[in-house]
Amino acid sequence: MDARSESMACSTKAKAEQHCRLCNTRLHHTFVDLGMSPPCESFLTADAVDEMESYYPLHAFVCEACFLVQLPEHVSPQNIFEEYAYFSSYSDSWVAHAKLYCETVIPRFSLGSKSLVVELASNDGYLLQHLLAAEIPILGVEPALNVAQIAIDKGIPTITQFFGSHLARVMVSNGDQADLIVGNNVLAQVPDLNDFVAGMTLLLKPQGVITLEFPHVAELIAERQFDTIYHEHFSYFSLLTIEILAARHGLKVFDVDQLPTHGGSLRVYLVHANNPVPCEARVKQLRDQEHAAGLDMLETYTAFGMAARQSKRDLLSFLIGLKNAGKTICAYGAPGKGNTLLNYCAIGTDFIDFAVDRNPYKHDRFTPGMHIPIKPVEELNRARPDYVLILPWNLKTEIIAQMRSISDWGGKFIVPIPHAVEIDPKELAS
Description:
- By secondary structure, the protein is an alpha/beta fold.
- It has 16 helices and 17 strands.
- It has helices at 3-16, 77-81, 92-108, 128-133, 145-153, 165-173, 193-203, 217-222, 239-248, 281-292, 298-302, 304-324, 336-345, 379-383, 396-402, 425-429; strands at 29-37, 56-62, 69-70, 117-120, 138-141, 158-159, 178-184, 204-215, 235-236, 251-259, 265-272, 329-332, 355-356, 374-375, 387-390, 412-415, 421-423.
- Helix 5 (145-153) links the parallel strand 5 and strand 6.
- Helix 6 (165-173) runs parallel beside helix 7 (193-203).
- The model is unreliable at 1-15 (pLDDT under 50).
């Protein structure tokens, strides 16, 4: 099947199956429609730039019953993750976040040499490496072979398959039942939510704990984070929705952390429903916050499309003004969210000369759709652009600290979300 036929087939399938992947309610209500976009991690080699690309709808819906925000499955996980371009270890702040997590959970849950920690979507070992150093038994599950190999080379045992109830049964039959299951930014990437959570329930020891981190849909709405919507993120969660999902599979939330990562995330702690562990006050506090923010009202979600359109117009007006003034602009980073933003706003090489990224995998490739060339970070020092557009805006503090030297030639940063803001590194230094 060629790319165009595959795209049409997936679109037809999605239209025929627009039911909530959590509770199976028919989906009627649009959260936001970002038009057609290529898969956000499908970076192009130079010889593929003139070939036809596959585009799929970025039309997110909200379920009127459980308030799960979701995209239909236009692109299968197998196609997305067969060769994956995201390596967690290229973000220093994310590795530090994982290290702090490990240092916290080891004493809290009495992890030791007889424990087993399983991470789902373990990527390149960015987290498990810290538990390996603490001599705690670990096991990663990472379906992307090119990424998993990096972890394996670090000495981290890794299963290179997609996780679900079938794999969980196999793992349990092999004696691998977990004291702690970690899932960081994986739940959003699972089209079959119920099978995935059923697998975690099977894999978890009777007194074991699950921690899941994911971007908080409340922050997505409040901060106009439309660019965090892309094809590999099938679902967008609130605590209210997570509690519905947990209850369906004999689990319960007993604690929650509100985190600054990825523009505002939640870390939920789950156990088997019959576990007598007391529920922390933070759970009720956040539940009340979500009710106050209207996350139990359909109107809160359906109003988001207008906010996204306004952010698009504001950013384009800002960039047009700079280009009309003769300014040069480059982009820092080529993340998935950046490709949603570039394609939705139609920002190509008419605005951006090139992008830079720390990940060598992306060098000499081109962004999907807009075909902006990607170069090593050092190219910024050679080109000396007037402005650097930070596409991974959730890492803006880390990036500005790393690249403050652009002030040597008078360069400035642009942060695009929730609305375009100019940052002069000279003013930060003063």
